[in-house]
Design goal:
seven-stranded parallel β-sheet, 271 residues, 6 helices, single chain, 29% helix, Rossmann fold, globular
């Protein structure tokens, strides 16, 4: 397999981890991933990714409204399969961010999100897309004691229809990975400040669940370009002195090394 390497480096063994965690200067990249579709490109995270990725990749936006700053974009809905086919045509990878949330319509939103996500995944399959990165959320695990670290092995316990649709998408991604050979990474994102400057780390994370704009670009880029991925789940949060969320798994499986960090003492209770 033809991989290229950015920088050079070795491996270090992280305590308590199943296997080596690469140092941040060792970043293998699949060079065949050059054209990336971002759904929900007009939203907070989407605009951040467009700004942060379009200097290194051919980026196409896909949203129900025009995508500011994107050189290539499709205006359409994930609920329209023909729009999804048009958006995914010619793409190597898809970053699927769209979340349909209408006040007071939880179950209808859940169904729309499931249908829309299936449309995106199926259109990607039909158009030969090789990698999908999906924007899930930490909420799929439900409330947990703050004394317990969240890991990819923490049982999913959705407490509403919105996180339920995220669990569905993670399982659908597994199906498309196993049956169709599409590499899939679910990024369980935390909280991102919409007032941060797109593509920058201008908003400092203050909590383990916080997610800077610069780290958002880092994790989703690694999710689509790291070679050899079949199916993975990682956390989309910035680093923290309080290791409430396991980031070593993301470092190990896609080489996601967050550069922004919150400084906070451990707390108690549930979240």
């Amino acid at each position: 397999m033809n991989w290229r390497m950015i920088w050079l480096g070795g491996l270090v063994l992280a305590a308590g981890c199943r296997g080596p965690v690469p140092e941040p200067r060792t970043l293998p990249v699949d060079p065949s991933i050059r054209r990336i579709l971002i759904t929900g490109s007009a939203g907070t995270v989407g605009a951040t990714l467009v700004a942060g990725l379009q200097q290194r990749y051919e980026v196409r936006g896909f949203d129900i409204r025009p995508t500011t700053g994107a050189g290539d974009s499709v205006v359409g809905s994930i609920l329209n399969f023909d729009d999804c086919l048009r958006a995914t045509e010619g793409m190597d990878a898809v970053i699927h961010l769209v979340n349909i949330r209408r006040r007071g319509a939880d179950w209808e939103d859940c169904k729309d999100n499931m249908i829309g996500t299936h449309n995106v995944f199926e259109a990607a399959r039909q158009n030969g897309v090789r990698r999908i990165a999906y924007s899930s959320e930490t909420g799929v695990m439900g409330p947990q004691p703050l004394t317990v670290q969240r890991t990819v092995h923490t049982r999913t316990r959705p407490s509403g229809y919105y996180p339920l649709s995220k669990v569905f998408a993670e399982k659908l991604g597994y199906l498309y990975s196993r049956q169709h050979g599409i590499g899939f990474v679910s990024v369980r994102i935390g909280r991102i400040d919409p007032n941060g400057e797109a593509g920058s780390g201008s908003v400092e994370p203050l909590h383990p669940y916080d997610f800077s704009h610069a780290d958002a670009v880092r994790v989703f880029e690694r999710a689509v370009v790291h070679p050899g991925v079949e199916y993975e789940i990682v956390f989309g949060v910035s680093d923290s002195t309080w290791e409430l969320i396991d980031l070593d798994h993301g470092r190990r499986v896609i080489n996601y090394f967050p550069q922004d960090k919150s400084v906070i003492e451990p707390q108690s209770g549930d979240m």
